[in-house]
Amino acid sequence: MNVIIFGPPGAGKGTQSEILAKKFNLFKVSTGDLLRKEIKNKTPISEKIKVINKGNLVPDEIIGSLIENILANKSYCNRLIFDGYPRTLNQAENLDLLVKKHKQKISVILSLKVDESDIIKRIQGRETCSKCGLIFNKFFNPATEENHKCDKTFLHKRVDDTEKTLKNRFETYAKKTLPILDYYRNQKLLREIDGKGKINDIYQQIHQIIHSLEA
Ligand code: AMP
Fold first, then answer.
1. pLDDT tens-digit readout, 148-179
2. Residue 16 CA: distances (Å) to CA of 19, 27, 102, 163, 199
3. Most CB atoms within 10 A, among 31, 86, 162, 165?
């Protein structure tokens, strides 16, 4: 089973895919995390990737080669969860070619529906641990001694979670990413999730869908 979690910035894709990966033994592929890692490690492509700090999309060719490396790895075969990918129609079409080439398939696209006002609050409160990668929220899901083992000093706000960048990220989402939904609707792979409310309530909706796919 390969799953795509879809939604606007701050919809909770990272949080839900983290839970899903653990419960269903899937491998989480966050293109945002992969790109931030390239920048951190100052790899040869890192300069081209720095556009993410302004909220712009990274070129499709770079994303395509990162994804192909993962799809080619047999140990993750048909157990991937994509978070933040695909983000353009071109990426979605390329993903179809890649899954065919590596004899895999996409099982479902889970689209998280959230109001813009909720999203802004979620992004303003978002904190990520640079050591373990877990995502918390100062307002709704703060890091505590029970849910987070690393030192508090590892918690940080993402550089692209600013008001100015956020505006650009929303515009890019509306213009380039949202049209993908029709592509998957036509393939009858799209399932919509009410992404408001508590993390566990959202997860329960997703769990039911995944469970029904496995049956
Ligand atoms: P995310 O962690 O998913 O919010 O992604 C952070 C930023 O990385 C985005 O705002 C984009 O600039 C870039 N990014 C992540 N995934 C992709 C993708 N699939 N295609 C192009 N750019 C991406």
1. 999 999 999 988 888 888 889 999 999 999 99
2. 5, 13, 26, 24, 8
3. 86
Task: For residue 61, give its domain range.
Answer: 2-114+190-214
Task: Tell me which of 87, 91, 95, 98 to substitute to probe ligand 1's pocket, judged by most ligand atoms within 8 Å of the beta carbon.
Answer: 87
Question: Domain total for the chain?
Answer: 1
- Dist. CA 85 → ligand 1 center (Å): 8
C-alpha distances out from residue 184 to 41, 96, 203, Å:
34, 11, 21
**Ligand 1: nearest atom to the Cα of 172:** 10
Distance CA 33, CA 21 (A): 15
Q: Write the CATH number for 9.
A: 3.40.50.300
